[in-house]
Design brief:
Blueprint: H1 2-24, H2 30-58
Length: about 60
């Protein structure tokens, strides 16, 4: 069951990242690129913590 949760989390992370990229990386605007990079770093940590909690329940 945890594999399914982790797969779902991966799909959500990919959709969120792609959606932000689609909205923020249209054309070359340095401010939007910086916002995108910061958002990816923050969301990466959030998704990592969620994945860690899912994995810890497996043990």
């Amino acid at each position: 069951m945890n594999h399914l949760k982790r797969l779902l989390l991966l799909m959500i992370a990919l959709v969120v990242g792609a959606g932000m990229g689609y909205k923020l990386l249209v054309g070359f605007e340095p401010a939007k690129m910086i916002i995108f990079a910061i958002a990816i770093l923050i969301l990466g940590e959030v998704f990592y913590q969620i994945d860690k909690r899912i994995s810890d329940k497996d043990k």
